[in-house]
Amino acid sequence: MLEAAPGLRAVAVFEEMRRRHPELDPGVRRTLERRIRSWRAVHGPEKEVIFRQRHEPGQLGLSDFTAMNDLGVTVAGQPLAHRLYHFRLAFSGFEHGRVVLGGESFTALAEGLQNALWSVGGVPKEHRSDSLSAAFRNLDREAKDDITRRYDELCAHYRMTPSRNNRGVAHENGAIESAHGHLKKAIDDALLLRGSRDFDDIDAYRAFIDELIGRRNARHQKRIALERAALKPLPKRRTTDYEESVVVVTSSSGFTLKKVFYSVPSRLIGHRLRVRLFDDRLEIFLGGSYLMTRPRGRPRSSSQHGHVVDYRHVIHSLRRKPMALLNLVYRDQLFPRPAYQHTFEHLLAELPERRACKIMVELLALAHERACEAELAGMLEGLLDERRLPDPAALRDHFLPDAATFPSVTVATAPLGLYDDLATIQQGGAA
């Protein structure tokens, strides 16, 4: 059996022997496994040999992505689905990491790689990545060629020789593949010592990762300094690490890009905007003028669009048409905090739909006009706990500015005769 099927597991051989000979004692399984292991050592097929490589300073830098969902990190109590872009210099072990909210993509690679190169202060002769299989999935030939061309142009800008390991042969990227496991274990240990896996926002989590990797790099200061001297100088500037698109703002006060709807101020309806698409954000321009930065969204599924909506962009129109809230496509994404969504659900359960929509829109308008989004959310949570309905008029009175806090301003009026005296002085001085 072993000669006919060299990959057969020892346990499968044992089960087949038991089937043919039911009287066989089950306790001989371990003995059989040892015998098979010894037989394979003498008579088995040849195994693949891994050839350890000697790395010269400044020769090789490697990039790869690793999934981080199994660490159980949350942001503001919500699970964070993310990957980690990981760069490493093969000789010195210098590392750089960046939290990636989407999948493997050229923009994530380009931004992470450039951050790493500018952080270490130089450029290796060769850069190796995997085949970016996730980035190529479901792409047509033209799109795949475009990513390959952009990757080659990125390496050419930094005068690096691009290379990729063969698909499915992870050990060709061994200088970083094995480091993935060590880094993830170090992050897990640091999270255990921290006592919590929850972070206030994504920036706090990124700062946590940066600090951890900085401590790891500090252990290799001498080797990093030696390799830094062998790196090629950086170019004068970074190159493009984003995708650029031109979009038209529709009458819905937004635009759709890569199956995600983004809201913008309604005054931009009908305008063409230039959008720079990064891994975690969009930078929006009108002509050459920068307008705003929006967080990047992701489609909910292959058939469902995602939505990134700011209620401030549409609240003025929603106040004129409050019933539009009831069946709004992006209604759940419109609410800035869970308390607002739970309040609306409570209103719908207790009041007629028209009245519920009217009250909810007034609450959103109050949060916008009085800049009290967080404080109002806290009050709404208290009302929900008490099973009480919010009173927009009372809440609006509560958030009115306190007249006692207004500064007392006294303006002293100068006598008009002073201007005649001033003119006389000036004439005398001129004489």
From the structure provided, what is the oligomeric state, counting identical versus distinct chains?
A: single chain
CATH architecture tag of the largest domain: 2-Layer Sandwich
Rg from alpha-carbon coordinates: 32 Å
CATH class of the largest domain: Alpha Beta
Topology order in helix (H) and strand (E) letters: HHEEEEEHEHHEHEHHEEEEEEEHHHHHHH
The computed structural class is alpha/beta
Polypeptide structure, described:
- By secondary structure, this protein is of the alpha/beta class.
- The protein has 4 domains: 10-43; 60-230, Nucleotidyltransferase, domain 5; 243-308, no CATH class; 329-404.
- 43% of the residues lie in helices and 16% in strands.
- It contains 15 helices and 15 strands.
- The protein has helices at residues 10-20, 29-43, 106-120, 133-136, 141-157, 174-194, 202-218, 221-230, 315-320, 331-334, 338-350, 353-369, 373-385, 392-398, 417-430; strands at residues 60-67, 74-75, 78-79, 83-89, 95-100, 126-129, 161-164, 198-199, 243-248, 254-257, 260-263, 272-277, 281-286, 289-295, 306-308.
- The strands form 4 sheets. Strands 5-4-1-6-7 form a 5-stranded mixed beta sheet, with helices on both faces. It has a 4-stranded antiparallel beta sheet with strand order 9-12-13-14, with no helix packed on it. The protein has a 3-stranded mixed beta sheet with strand order 3-2-8.
- Strand 4 and strand 5 form a beta hairpin.
- Helix 11 (338-350) runs antiparallel to helix 12 (353-369) and helix 11 (338-350) packs across helix 13.
- It is extended.
- The N and C termini lie far apart (123 Å).
- The model is unreliable at 134-138 (pLDDT under 50).
